[in-house]
Amino acid sequence: MSSQPQPIPTVATAPAAVTVGMRPDLATPDLTTQRCTRRLAITPKYGSASCEVEVSYLWCGAPDAPTVIVQGGISATRDVVALDGESAPGWWQEQIGSGQPLDLDRYRVLSINWVTPAELTGVQTVSSEDQADVLAALVEALGINRVHAFIGSSYGAMVALAFAARHPYALGRLVLLAGAHRPHPLATAQRSIQRGIVRLGLECGQPEQALALARQLAMTTYRGSEEFAKRFNAAPEFRDGRFHFPVEDYLEHAGRRFVERFDVERFLALSESIDLHDVTPEQVAAPATLIGFPSDRLVPLADLCELQRRLHGPATLEVVESPYGHDAFLKETDRLAPLLRDALAGC
Fold it and tell me: Which residue has the higher pLDDT, 5 or 150?
């Protein structure tokens, strides 16, 4: 059941620990970076009272430029772009920086780490509305009168819709990639199996092995059939007493990497949050650009067509052919760049 729109919540703040860093193309006097934490107050959807939460965020770009919120899937962090001295690139590195759609001379990019129930007092479940309220509280605390745009991908697109429904006067435009107003029931079924695997692992004392296996199953839903057919069409190898198929090594590697940077409780909470998501499109008046991929088995184009038809504000739907399925929002950099530029220019 969708919540009614609410004003931006009153914010309780505590002194934030600020870490300033610069990527090479940020190292000019006109660009600044805040990589900070801030204590905010929200009322969780599944809670009974207001509570404080400490949110970690990244805010970088020209100081007087309009702010664009950028949020990704449940495994994405605030590090949408890497700062100087960090070895790993940000999860959307190629879309941000000089000459890119999110040119930091023209925009300030704001991104947070997703909040989990462990960080909220007295609740067992976190909702997409809670994430939206955290972002709205942060926007107010930072003195941002109005966000130029909210670019959300996957779970981030769900949170963007919740933000637009609950805080309409704080937002200029929506850009939604591979995310809709509700989860598709088949995708919910697949995620439910993943959560069941993890819960079974907890009961059996093998949580990390279970989390790795759940991630392997998830990888089969993120990518398209065409990509799997091209990459893993080789013959199996007999080793360690059994046949190993080429796709197994890829999946096992993905599972190991996920366990290194994610914990069981965080996965369970954010996965469930996806399936609890439900926003009434008619409550969203902000102009929107929707981007979908025919090979995406988690967010079918039919759901985006329905979303476009029901949104209260003007909306366009861009269809990008890709073999990468749901992960096309991460992989199709060159094809998405002009769409992002056009969407931001239309604000």
Answer: 150
Has 296 been annotated as catalytic?
yes
Q: Could you say which of 148, 167, 277, 326 is catalytic?
A: 326
CA 132 to chain centre: 12
For the chain, give the mean pLDDT: 90
Please give the full DSSP string across 32-75, using - where no structure is assigned.
EEEEEEEEEEE--TT-SS-EEEEEEEEEEE-TTSPEEEEE--TT
pTM of the model: 0.90
* Selected catalytic residue, list 2, 3, 128, 154: 154
**Which residue, chain included where needed, has tokens 């959807």?**
45
What pairing do the DSSP bridges indicate for beta strands 149-153 and 174-177?
parallel
Identify whether 240 is a catalytic site residue: no
Indicate if 133 belongs to the active site: no
Assigned token pair, 305? 């067509």
Confidence bin at 73 (pLDDT 50/70/90) = very high
Q: Which of 296, 303, 322, 327 is catalytic?
A: 296
